[in-house]
Specification:
The complex is a heterodimer of chains A (80) and B (453). Chain A has 80 residues and is mainly β. Chain A contains no helices and four strands. Chain A has strands at residues 13-17, 22-25, 49-52, 57-61. Helix content of chain B is 51%, strand content 13%. Classes of the chains: A mainly beta (80), B alpha+beta (453).
Amino acid sequence: MSADVIAAQLSPYQVEVEEGRTYKWCRCGRSRVQPFCDGAHVATGIEPMLFVAERSETLLLCGCKETGNPPFCDGTHNVL
Amino acid sequence: MTSEAHAYAQTLGEEQSIWFKISPFLNADDPMSVLMRLAARHDGCIPINFRGERIFILSEIDHFRRVLVDNVDNYHKYFDGLKPIFGKAMITVDGALWQKVRQPQQSYFHPAVYADYIPYLMVALRKKVDEWAEMARRGSAFEMLEQTWGLAADMICRALFDREVPFNPHVVFGAVKAYTDTSNHRSIRLKKVNGGLSDVTEAEPPAKAIGAWLTLPEAVISAAPWQGREKTLLNMMLDAEQDADKPAWDHQQVLDEIKQYLWAGTETTALTLGWTFYLLSRHPEAAARIRRESWEVLGDREPTAADIERLTFTRQVMLEALRLYPPAWALIRTAVGEDEIAGHKIKAGDRIVLCPYVAHHDPKYWDDPEVFHPERFDPANSKKRVKYSYLPFGAGKRFCLGGQLSQIETMLALSQLLRRFEPEYLGRLPPPIAASVTLIPKGGLQFRLRELL
């Protein structure tokens, strides 16, 4: 059985990404290198999400891990 | 009135806000019931043709998701009728300019920074407690929204700008209401003279109101710093204006951002508090529970961020008030390309009105939606909530940046004010609603205070 997702912070992470690079967004909330995965999900049954940056830009990645549009922030942290 | 104010006043009503276009049916005595009935009859998509302009009023969560998340780039913000008030502030713009203006502001709306803001919010609250003690002694009736607007403005000025409110909140509240309470800006700019229409003169109230409004940002900038803090949102913006690498940040941008915080960042909080005080006046048992929670969690200590997280019932009441009376009852967009929603072909230029209010009152998502029941926001129930059925702060990448700060302001205010006072609502039951840019009580919210000893 999967453990619960936990909120890393009730706010997005503003990060710079590079076009073409692959990123691992932490989905379980336990990573200590938010918003990215550091392997802390082992034994939670929750896997990180891989995504490739479509262009070099600044992104708001979800910090509460409850977004309806992973890995991006969709404002859900405002109503948790 | 400055020439800038005069120029702004001249454009009022040239571009009508969508709110004013749909006002014929929203000006009904009970506009939200009309809206709910129409939404039900049209399966959540009300198509309107207004002099060749197509407007779609949407209220199903699939529509919200399509417009705000999945196909967000096809729907731009539509604020034309409010340009005289907000200019090109972050809330009104899209694309690259929005990115450039939004990014540097993000770090001033972060949980770590909110913890630093709490003592500043408390200064504003203690001032309000003293004022309320005097008002309770007088025992006379007063307008609650004027009180909560003044409080919200004081909190914002101290926390974000490091300023004491450098204007008379009473005067500015009057100016703001000149815009929020009217359903047609053209009618406040033009008056009937000898059977024809003529611009109001500079000496008349609407022109004076916008003149007062436009002086505020410079008043904030030129006021003496309150504590002399270096890292504030205001200083960041003023530095950006001097930075040749940030051409988006010209002086007008800084002025417009300040206007946005003094209106969008205060009026919504003021309304949330006003509606919550109304609900609590009708539900004294909930007010008593907030009072108990305040003493148990905070005691006589200076509140911390961790304390605010423990104000769990206070938070449930606030969220329930935001469900029943969402200040941002409708979110307006304009389509930039084709799409299809609810079987309707959407064309470029079509106006889209999303109505969180309707979803908030939909029995599909809420048991007894018209009943005040804060426990529905018990954290144990929050995971059961249907995604995008509760949107008091919007959703998608344009979610409200100040949503959490506003919640902290509201919870602190409820907790600190209710432990000392019992606000009694004196107006009509239920308070008639006006569906303006925000969801406002038609004619305000009259209250009287009793001090608890």
